[in-house]
Specification:
Elements lengths: L3 E2 L2 E5 L2 E5 L9 E5 L5 E10 L2 E6 L12 E4 L5 E4 L6 E4 L15 E4 L10 E2 L4 E3 L3 H6 L2 E2 L6 E3 L5 H11 L1 E2 L2 H6 L9 H4 L1 E10 L1 H14 L5 E7 L6 H18 L4 E7 L1 H14 L13 H9 L3 E3 L5 E9 L8 H9 L2 E4 L2 H5 L12 E2 L15 H25 L6 H18 L9 H12 L12 H7 L4
Parallel strand pairs: 9-17, 14-20, 14-21, 16-17, 16-18, 18-20
Antiparallel strand pairs: 1-7, 2-3, 3-6, 4-5, 4-7, 5-6, 8-10, 11-19, 12-13, 12-15, 19-20, 21-22
Amino acid sequence: MSTAYKTVTDIAGPIMIVKGIEGVAYDELCEIELISGEKRLGKVLEAREDLAIVQLFEDAQGSTTEGTKVRFLGRTFELGVSPDMLGRVFSGSGSPIDNGPAIVPEKKLDINGEPINPFAREFPDDFIQTGISTIDTLNTLVRGQKLPIFSGAGLPHSQLAAQIARQARVLTDDEVKNGQATEGEETETDEKFAVVFAAMGVTFEEAEYFKTEFEKTGALSRAVLFLNTADNPVVERIATPRLALTTAEYLAFEKGYHVTVILTDMTNYCEALREVSAARKEVPGRRGYPGYLYTDLATIYERAGRIKGKEGSITQIPILTMPEDDVTHPIPDLTGYITEGQIRLDRSLHQKGIFPPVIPMGSLSRLKGKAQGEGVTREDHSGMDAQLTAAYARGVEVRELAVILGESSLSDTDKAYLKFADRFEKEFIAQGETANRSIFESLNLGWNLLSELPKSELKRVKPEHIEKYLGKN
């Protein structure tokens, strides 16, 4: 039986100071017993000499320095994992909240995981279809990639996250060869595709929305949900993404699944880090966030990828809301350094009633070149990506010019670009929450839109592709 210490000297928010300890290690799990007999969990944030700083996973309310017992358990926070987790909903601390039976674990894993040896990493180069034209065509998601979504307060990132979780899948070789997505029956790749969804600090209404969306569409059968609401302890928010990623690593590298991990909202996660850091009286960094924010985010984002010799993969889509839509804020700024691009949601598109409001300019998938072209999607994909983005950017410039000079002052070519930009927003970007377009449908739609422009303006697509696809979709 481990020793129970009654030497709690200070409690500040979710932080507890215990003195006179022996043999306690960093990240060790501990059990806190209150005077009332209630027991709560915590972990060691720092251990030095005879002092330990303990972080509670639950609310500190009701705890006092007098009479509180702390027992160190000699192990880290572990999650019991099993294939039976698919189709289940868990709290942010890993407990089932769907009225289902307790999970009988196949094994228990440390939620902090282990870093992937860089030499063992396989380069991401396989296409993942989300069913969303602006992502699949212009900001292609690659299997094993980490591609965040930069949003803002009031923008529909929750709906976009739910749509990606419902629709994301890997194409079969036959689908790529035939240039047509299989409708109806589930393919072999669908059977080995899973989604791990973690929501941090969301409202009760948002949590219910996510559960309902997964259930009514049948997507829950291939998904694992972790839901941490705003009324849950702030420290639980720090553990939630690690629980999700531990589940993903188990499914991917031990069970051979292609797992897409969606984390929303990373801003709430970072706010929780800042709160704990303030309680520890640490010297603050930019805007009050701890100086180790970059390192901490890296321990989450770098848990995506593929491993040589393993069938499965982990693709990560973190979602964050930029305070005041400021892309230079520490959270999106540091996220951009670690991840491989970003998908930007635009407020002006949202105000026009366009969903999803993904803006091509400012969005980027740095690995998309590896998942575009013959044998992966279709031969015209790369050129279509460049041509649509350039044409829309020109159309937006012409629109701004027309406001100043008047549309009558525009040349015929400028008017064609203006018409293209309007159609591009209404027909290509806008598609609704339930529309699930295959990459082939998106490419055909792109050719249809390009027919608005003179052929002499199509300088980013190959002549043979113009001859083969233009005006035939």
